[in-house]
Amino acid sequence: MKVIVNQLHSAGGPLTRALRRRLTAAARLLPDEHRFAGGELAVILADDHYLQKLNRSYRGLDAPTDVLSFSMLEEGDFPGSAAAEDRPVLIGDIYISLDRAHEQAAAAGRSLEQEVLALSIHGLLHLYGFDHSCAATAERMEQKEADLLNRVQRISPEEKVMERLIGSFQDAFNGLHYTLTTQRNMAIHFAAASLVIIFSFLLRLEPWEFFLILTVIFAVLIAEMINTAIEKTVDLVTQEQRKLARIAKDVAAGAVLLTAFYAVLAGGYIFGPRLWKVILKLIHF
What we know:
Helices cover 66% and strands 10% of the residues. It is α/β, with parallel strands linked by helices and 285 residues long. It has two domains: 2-155, 3-Layer(aba) Sandwich (Collagenase (Catalytic Domain)); 177-283, Helix Hairpins. A four-stranded mixed beta sheet has the order 1-2-4-3, sandwiched between helices.
C-alpha cells in the first residue's frame, strides 16, 4: 500500500518520513479483508483551524478535532471482490491536527510522533469501516487500535534500520523523478546524455574514455539537481523578490553552466578526433 503524507503545518518538525513508514507497516498488519496491496492512502498534517473548517463543512460541528477520515472505498473495492482485481484502490484521506496532537501527547506522556501515529491508525480504522458509535463497536475499535500501535512499535531494531534504508532510497528516487518530470533543463540534460552514451558505443570508446564521459554526465545531472534543490529551498523561505535570494539562484545556475561547459570540453576532447575521421571518410567517399 502506498502512503502519501503531506505536512501543511510546521509544528513538530518534519514527521512525514517516519509516519509514512510506520503507517505502511500498520496497514500491512491488518487482516486480509482489509489489506490493499495496491491501495493509496493520504495523510494530511494540518492545524486546528484547518480541521475546524473541515469539521464545520462535513459534520456541521464548528469546533476543532484531532482527526478526520474521508473514505473513498466502495463495496467493490474490498479485496476478494471481482471489481477490485487488477486495479489501484483509493482508500481515502486522513486529516490530523498537530495542535491537538501536541496537547494530547503532553497529556498522555508520549512523544508527538507516537500521538500522530496513534491518530493515523485511528483514522485508518475509520476508513476501513470501524466506528465507535456504541459501546461494543468502540471497544472493538480501541482493541484493534491498541494492538496495531503496539505491534508497530515492537518492530525490531534490524527491521527499523531496513525500513529507514528503504525509505531513504524511496525518497531519493522521488527526488530524481520530480526533477526529471518538472524541470525542463533536467529533461534536456538527460536526453543529451542518452545520445552521448549511444554515440560512445557506436564510436567504440576506450574504457577510460567512456568512464570520463559518464563522470561528466553525472556531474551535470547532479549539478542540475542541486540547483533545483536550492531554488525550491529559496522559494520555501521567501516568495518576495529579494536580492540575496536572486543571488543564491544565480550562483546555483552558474554552477550548472560551468559543469555543462566542462562536459562540452570533455566531449570535444573524446569525440572530436573520431568525428573528424568520420567526416573525412564521408568527404572522400
